[in-house]
Amino acid sequence: MYSICDMSEKLKLYRPDIDSIFTYVLGQYPNAYNWFLNRVIPELPIKRKILGCFVKGKIVAIAILKINDPDEKICTFYVRSKYRRRGIGTALMTECLKYLTNPYIVVKTSGIFFFRRLLEKFGFELVYKGNLAYRYRLFDRSS
Ligand SMILES: CC(C)(COP(=O)(O)OP(=O)(O)OC[C@H]1O[C@@H](n2cnc3c(N)ncnc32)[C@H](O)[C@@H]1OP(=O)(O)O)[C@@H](O)C(=O)NCCC(=O)NCCS
User: Fold this and answer.
1) Residue whose CA is closest, atom 17 of ligand 1?
2) pLDDT digits (tens, 9 = 90+) for 63-111
3) Domain 2-100 is classified in which CATH homologous superfamily?
């Protein structure tokens, strides 16, 4: 069993959980924590949102969103490897889309294998295919 919660408004309380999950995300994105400190925190809670997924009180997944912005985006989306393939990514994405209308997400080419099915399932379309990353966008949700 898992539960998803909005960590944006109680950052102080959730900070140890957020820091601990960044130890996993950082393996792939070494600058992610500096970005979190310098860009995400100052923009909470109006322009950014942080959603976390917990299993037995332990954080296993995180999503960081850019909201209330024409450039709305899913900036970070990560499920710890041990907890994948049991619907957590799907549940977290469902929660993310409550706050976003036409978001995009950039996925490293090395991560496409994991992300493709999840994104296509929600109707994201591939809009840019680069050597290092792919960009997906979700269209037509406001009409
Ligand atoms: C992509 C990711 C979020 C998926 O999370 P998850 O919890 O495994 O997702 P779910 O269990 O909800 O699965 C979603 C769908 O994708 C499919 N899927 C997930 N992993 C898959 C894999 N390795 N191969 C094939 N399909 C896969 C599932 O079968 C499911 O499809 P279905 O509903 O038709 O059965 C997770 O693999 C992840 O976090 N990867 C690393 C991402 C990363 O590097 N993020 C940091 C930068 S943003």
Assistant:
1) 117
2) 999 999 999 999 999 999 999 999 999 999 999 999 999 999 999 999 9
3) Gcn5-related N-acetyltransferase (GNAT) (3.40.630.30)
pLDDT at 143: 56
Q: Which of 88, 114, 119 to mutate to test the pocket of ligand 1 (most atoms within 8 A of CB)?
A: 114
Question: What pLDDT does 4 receive?
Answer: 97
Residue 123 CA to ligand 1 center (angstroms) comes to 15
What kind and span of H or E run contains 33? helix 32-35
Closest CA to 60 of 46, 41, 79, 75: 79
